[in-house]
């Protein structure tokens, strides 16, 4: 069970930020840059049944789980939320959230809109941010340029993107990632305003 920040001593407890956006929109790049700029900000490392991509590091990018291990975590109440995205399961570990917020860190969950709806339903004090592409065409171009997905996976991710973008108005803030620097400034200033932390840059 997680206590929302408003149920805690809010000075000692960090704030929770949810960042969603379609695959390829650049949210990973934006979140990595925000983490660099804000030392008291942490990222919740999710568990997933997706196989590691080249360069993925266990415990840094994800905790990679078998289907059985993931089922076990669900049964043991190990997740704050979990969802199936692009045919694989992804979930936020209760242990990650409690540890970071308990240490007074502000925490980012980089999760899909299904996961956001679950967190929102039992935690009122979250700040939710949707990172949107300037257009679907541009998103397709970025996914192709990234070169991590085959054509089938790109078209699956674009279909998911269309559905995810429809959820954007449920978020507190929508940031359009047209210009990376500008989008980063918006993200950092939002976290600085709403979180317990100070920017160093
Ligand atoms: P990827 O396979 O590209 O690493 O991630 C695919 C999508 O899964 C991401 O765009 C992100 O929105 C979503 N995702 C990653 N971790 C979680 C999680 O813990 N929970 C949920 N609901 N979605 C996640």
Summarize this entry quickly:
The protein has 201 residues and is α/β, with parallel strands linked by helices.
> What strand order characterises the main sheet?
2-7-1-8-9
DSSP strand count = 9
Radius of gyration: 16 Å
The coarse overall form would be globular
Order of H and E elements: EHEEEHEEHEHEHHEH
CATH class membership: Alpha Beta
CATH architecture: 3-Layer(aba) Sandwich
Bound molecules: guanosine-5'-monophosphate
First-last Cα distance = 35 Å
Please name the CATH topology. Answer: Rossmann fold
Q: Note the beta-strand portion.
A: 15-25%
CATH superfamily: P-loop containing nucleotide triphosphate hydrolases
Q: What is the averaged pLDDT score?
A: 90
Give the proportion of residues in helices: 40-55%
Helix/strand/pairing category:
alpha/beta
Multimer state: single chain
How many domains? The number is 1
Count of alpha and pi helical runs: 7
Give the low-pLDDT segments.
1-11, 197-201
